[in-house]
Design brief:
Blueprint lengths: L2 E2 L7 H4 L2 E7 L2 E6 L3 E6 L13 E7 L2 E7 H4 L12 E7 L2 E7 L1 E7 L5 E2 L13 E7 L2 E6 L1 H6 L2 H9 L2
Parallel strand pairs: 3-12, 6-8
Antiparallel strand pairs: 1-4, 2-3, 2-9, 4-7, 5-6, 7-8, 10-11, 11-12
């Protein structure tokens, strides 16, 4: 089920405003497609001791060691059993590759810059540490994630896991 994207290596202009959407329970999120390398089915994950619970471990993807984060756990949601719809979205930021475990991958959407609103300010009580914006698609909204912030909080640990190859 490996689906390869031209995200991390594609033409920046053609990727502008394009987001890969995925679900966690009933919520829909989007990632800027420029960070997405590929989508793979869930596979055997080697557990690594002494890492946060949401870092599920590492996988060997064609000889490259990739740390894997369960996004549900990262966002403080209940753990869910993996199914045939569960996917790992491999993203690349700089020279760090990370796998994001999500419930289901939906589609690639183009969202016009004018249809992306800033997340509410922190003083509203809305936690937006990982949200870069809110995309408006018709009557629906999509929480657009900031990939760099999503993995930055784990950067040292993730780089250490990836360098172990």
């Amino acid at each position: 089920m490996a689906e390869v994207f031209e995200g991390a290596t594609g033409n920046e202009d053609t990727l502008q405003g394009r987001f890969l959407t995925f679900t966690l329970g009933d919520e829909i999120y989007g990632l800027a497609i420029r960070y997405v390398v590929e989508i793979i089915g869930i596979q055997s994950i080697t557990i690594v001791p002494e890492v946060p619970q949401y870092i599920k471990g590492i996988i060997n993807l064609r000889g490259k060691i990739i740390p894997v984060i369960d996004v549900r756990l990262k966002f403080g949601k209940d753990e869910a059993e993996y199914s045939d719809r569960t996917c790992i979205i491999v993203i690349e930021i700089g020279d760090v590759s990370v796998g994001l475990i999500v419930d289901n991958v939906d589609e690639v959407l183009t969202i016009d810059e004018n249809d992306i609103a800033a997340p509410p300010a922190n003083r509203t009580g809305f936690e937006n540490r990982y949200i870069m914006g809110i995309g408006k698609i018709g009557n629906n909204v999509q929480l657009l994630l900031d990939c760099e912030r999503l993995i930055r909080t784990d950067a040292f640990g993730l780089e250490g896991l990836a360098e172990a190859q």
